[in-house]
From TrEMBL:
<dbReference type="InterPro" id="IPR046826">
    <property type="entry name" value="PDH_N"/>
</dbReference>
<feature type="domain" description="Prephenate/arogenate dehydrogenase">
    <location>
        <begin position="114"/>
        <end position="377"/>
    </location>
</feature>
<dbReference type="InterPro" id="IPR050812">
    <property type="entry name" value="Preph/Arog_dehydrog"/>
</dbReference>
<dbReference type="Pfam" id="PF02153">
    <property type="entry name" value="PDH_N"/>
</dbReference>
<dbReference type="Pfam" id="PF01817">
    <property type="entry name" value="CM_2"/>
</dbReference>
<dbReference type="GO" id="GO:0004665">
    <property type="term" value="F:prephenate dehydrogenase (NADP+) activity"/>
</dbReference>
<dbReference type="Pfam" id="PF20463">
    <property type="entry name" value="PDH_C"/>
</dbReference>
<dbReference type="GO" id="GO:0006571">
    <property type="term" value="P:tyrosine biosynthetic process"/>
</dbReference>
<dbReference type="InterPro" id="IPR036979">
    <property type="entry name" value="CM_dom_sf"/>
</dbReference>
<keyword id="KW-0560">Oxidoreductase</keyword>
<dbReference type="InterPro" id="IPR008927">
    <property type="entry name" value="6-PGluconate_DH-like_C_sf"/>
</dbReference>
<dbReference type="InterPro" id="IPR003099">
    <property type="entry name" value="Prephen_DH"/>
</dbReference>
<dbReference type="InterPro" id="IPR036263">
    <property type="entry name" value="Chorismate_II_sf"/>
</dbReference>
<dbReference type="GO" id="GO:0004106">
    <property type="term" value="F:chorismate mutase activity"/>
</dbReference>
<dbReference type="GO" id="GO:0008977">
    <property type="term" value="F:prephenate dehydrogenase (NAD+) activity"/>
</dbReference>
<dbReference type="GO" id="GO:0070403">
    <property type="term" value="F:NAD+ binding"/>
</dbReference>
<dbReference type="GO" id="GO:0046417">
    <property type="term" value="P:chorismate metabolic process"/>
</dbReference>
């Protein structure tokens, strides 16, 4: 035991001190802890300045592994729950990276400040992009249905024009704005489908073109580690600038073609959202009130419920077009229907052997991923239980 810890521990034989006294001591210790966190963040800011000066990336995975291993060992030595302490340090590392990104650690001091128009800049994703580019030191022109600034004049005055409008309107806005983008400038979009908007962008401007799709919504707490898909259309210099700007703010990039993106989204978005909607619709129609089930939640049911209810807390105008405009949606929903019927028949027939065969078929599809899934979903369950 360290001398400090000895100071706060009660003598072994004494009766426990009054609750109010011990709580006041805990408050004081927590304040010390926060002072120490503030001191850690001040050091992190110094690291950020050094990295910016020397062109070093914010994230150092090896150093993070060393930090986590060391804190894990020390937790064991101190008799603290090592897994929980590791979780605390993971959160610390993430907020440390976020702090460095906000301090522009990955933005070269020589970075040119550009003029960037966000068409749809008052929408949720538009605001997020405005903050992201603003944090990186660029000048912003915001255009939306309630601004006097018009998209065409903003685009003509900009180095970068970002189309961030609802999917249903994306192509028409691209066609209206594209011709005003200068040949040396960039036209980019952030739509959840990529083939049609990319074609529209390439056809409507002679300038550079980059298609992007942020794989996260506006409600995320931090951009650190969130993913953006980037599709190069025309002009590598601007495409490099886009990927660099995103990684500088902590985002992770997947570069691909518009066709590959749309194929992946038929599973990642269309299937996922569709099954969530089927789950929601079934729950709503089964006639078992939600409240009646809540005192019986298992971890799997609670996780599923949060995912489903989260979906229905959002905008149908966003999800409808994602599912209706993907070229492969009908294949996905047909395969879903087939799977539902097959499984329902097996269950109705009480055929355990057939049930096991289907189970094994899916297990083989997931392969080693099942092990990772167990670890990660257990982590999520722990976190949810911790907050309930
Ligand atoms: C502070 C640094 O940057 C990041 C944050 C770390 C931390 O907070 O300890 C460790 C490694 C980096 O991913 C660093 O490189 O030391």
């Amino acid at each position: 035991m360290t001398p400090d810890a000895a100071d706060s521990a009660a003598p072994p034989s004494a009766a426990p001190r009054p609750l109010a006294v011990v709580r006041a001591m805990i408050d004081a210790l927590d304040r010390d802890l926060m002072q120490i966190l503030a001191r850690r963040m001040a050091l992190v800011a110094e690291v950020a300045a050094y990295k910016r000066q020397h062109g070093i990336k914010i994230r150092d995975a090896q150093r993070e592994q060393e930090v986590l291993r060391d804190r894990h060992e020390r937790a064991l030595e101190l008799g603290l729950p090592a897994g929980e302490i590791e979780s605390i340090f993971r959160v610390l590392l993430r907020s440390s990276r976020d702090h460095q990104a906000a301090l522009r650690a990955e933005v070269p001091a020589s970075e040119t400040p550009y003029t960037i128009s966000i068409i749809g800049g008052h929408g949720k994703i538009g605001r997020l992009l405005a903050r992201l580019f603003g944090d990186l030191g660029h000048r912003l022109l915001i255009v939306d249905t309630d601004t006097t600034l018009e998209a065409a004049e903003a685009a003509a005055a900009s180095d970068v024009t970002v189309i961030s409008v609802p999917i249903d309107r994306t192509e028409e806005v691209i066609r209206a704005v594209g011709p005003h983008v200068r040949p040396d400038a960039l036209l980019m979009d952030v739509t959840s489908i990529k083939s049609a908007p990319m074609e529209a962008m390439l056809a409507s401007t002679t300038g550079s073109v980059v298609g992007t799709h942020p794989m996260f919504g506006p409600n995320v707490h931090t951009l650190q580690g969130q993913r953006v898909v980037v599709c190069r259309g025309r002009g590598d210099r601007w495409a490099d600038w886009v990927t660099h700007s995103f990684t500088a703010r902590g985002l992770v990039i997947t570069e691909t073609t518009a066709q590959q993106h749309d194929r992946a989204m038929s599973v990642v978005q269309v299937l996922t959202h569709f099954q969530t909607q089927v789950q929601g619709l079934t729950l709503a129609r089964l006639g078992v009130p939600l409240a009646e089930t809540l005192p019986f939640t298992s971890p799997a049911y609670l996780l599923e419920l949060y995912v489903t209810a989260r979906h229905f807390a959002q905008d149908p105008g966003l999800y409808g077009p994602i599912e209706m405009r993907n070229p492969r949606s009908s294949d996905v929903t047909a395969a879903f229907g087939t799977a539902v019927q097959e499984l329902a028949q097996v269950i109705a027939g009480g055929d355990q052997a057939a049930f096991t065969r289907l189970f094994e078929e899916v297990r083989a599809f997931f392969g080693d991923f099942t092990a990772e899934a167990l670890v990660q979903s257990s982590f999520l369950i722990d976190r949810i239980v911790e907050r309930s």
